[in-house]
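All the exercises in this workshop are built on plain-text protein records. An example says more than a description, so a record of this kind follows:
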Amino acid sequence: MKGQRYFILALVFALIVAILALVNDEPVQFNYVFGTQDWPLILVILGSAVFGGVVAVSLSLVKIIRLQSQIRQLQKNGASVPPSVEANKDNTTAAKKKEKELSSSENKNVGIKSRLNK
């Protein structure tokens, strides 16, 4: 579901960029390191969008690679579950036991109340 949302947002963004590019088709002077050149504005807009996408994907890949190396390192070191997680499991088990005790005592109370009302 989350992937579909990003895909739809990407399509909407691409549609907006395409509309802006089609509306702005007059030539503009593009300055780069080695000189200048007149290009249609549509190429400048689309080129900028593609360049931004490449930069975003590159930065995401760097983060993914870093996280994968951390995962491998933790697996190699035999990292275990932190004690706080174990404590939470124990608390959850204790809470479930208390809940069962309370529900059984409530059932007893209902039986006693029904006997008293007779």
